[in-house]
Amino acid sequence: MFAFDNSYGRLPDRFYTRMAPTPVAKPGWVALNEGLARYLGLDPAALRGSLDIFAGNRVPEGADPLAQLYAGHQFGGWSPQLGDGRAILLGEHVTDGRRVDVQLKGSGPTPYSRMGDGRSALGPVLREYIVSEAVHALGVPTTRALAAVTTGETVLRQEGPMPGGILTRIAASHIRVGTFQVFASRDDVEGLRALLDHAIARHAPEAEGPMGLLRHVMAAQARLVATWMGLGFVHGVMNTDNMTLSGETIDYGPCAFMEAYHPETVFSSIDQFGRYAWKNQPDIALWNLAQLATALLPLMSDRATAVTEATEVLEGFRDLYAAEWTRVMAAKIGVDDMNLAMELLDIMSEGQEDFTNTFRALTDAPETARDEMTNRERFDGWLARWQATGPDRAGMARANPVVIPRNHRVEAAIAAGYAGDFAPFEALNAVLAAPYEATEANAPYRRPATDGERVTRTFCGT
Length: 462
Ligand code: AMP
Ligand code: MG
Prior knowledge:
By secondary structure, the protein is an alpha+beta fold. Among the domains are: 8-171, no CATH class; 335-391, no CATH class. It has 17 helices and 12 strands. The strands form 4 sheets. Strands 2, 6, 7, 8, 9 and 10 form a 6-stranded antiparallel beta sheet that branches. It has a two-stranded antiparallel sheet with strand order 1-3. It has a two-stranded antiparallel sheet with strand order 4-5. Strand 6 (87-95) and strand 7 form a beta hairpin. Helix 7 packs antiparallel against helix 8 and helix 13 packs antiparallel against helix 14. The radius of gyration is 22 Å and the shape is globular. The chain starts with 15 loop residues before the first strand and ends in a 30-residue tail after the last helix. Magnesium ion binds next to loops.
């Protein structure tokens, strides 16, 4: 089974609350990710026989279950104490020199639950399973989904009593910007230092000191966010507690992929002012990194020099991000020409073209792309100039997916799951596992939502 070595549990006691998951009434399987299991050196058959572990009804040997403490800025406002309110870290599984967190999400109340019940409805479990695995298959760093189970219990949500679920999340770690913030806000310099050493050992062994770590995280986040942007992905809740030090995408609450391209696209029902709109994501990443830098200041010599140094490091983000964004767009249009890339985006936004299908049409059959265009005249001019550059179409086929998890498909899989039918969930996962190749099976999944199907709002609803 798991080969646990629990380094987080060796950090000071105030970093977490040691406790087991709360057992559930009658667990049932929804999904076991056999490919991921094998990648982690785990025997799928053994996991399949361990439903009670994935339900939180049994703590596996070698685990050191705990709920982690963190804080964070949520929509720009400071929350002095958050933490795993509905999750338990079972421990760290070590395989082939890689170390991953194994975490149950929806596993019962903890001291950090505040008003919440510590549980998750089945819908958000299915959503995180589908979208995190799709994001992985698209080539984006992300936490993964190892298992999804039903609990045989109901949870009370706005919609009424809903079937409950538990997701087993695999992550390079669950260290967040908000983990540093909680110790900084408590003037706990010793805690900060222990966390810094832990984070460096785990994610950036070559980094020197707080600014070395900051530089490392900046590079990872610049790369991550540029990759999201190139896929039309809107994370939806880029709070500092949802930004990892590892550079993995985490927390698939109100996230969604854009269909019609519009830079101001927002999905989250609670994002009233569009703070986390598609086009704002790079700026928000920098804002979050500035919070990380601030939290690291107490670890540096004198305050004034520290602020100057941290500011200098943060100023490097614009160039880092620009380089990543240029790389992403060059791959998408098959030529390193940002003027061409930006003009295409402008043409697309004018007609609100389907983000995914426009780039893929350019890849497979540029002539047909114009059929979809609203402003054909402008597009024709662009197309002629683009074709004259001799774009790398083979490279484009590896950068522009055929299928993405379109919201109406995700919602349909969730609705069927609530009705006890997991066939649409399984079919969707199968299609999304190979997103860069056009097949007969994925043809129906390439179609954008019709007006009746379109999902314009997504919910954090856990
Ligand atoms: P999120 O918006 O998913 O990043 O969660 C923000 C905070 O709310 C975290 O501290 C979560 O642990 C907590 N939280 C979210 N849902 C629940 C729930 N159902 N029960 C307890 N805590 C929750
Ligand atoms: Mg979160």
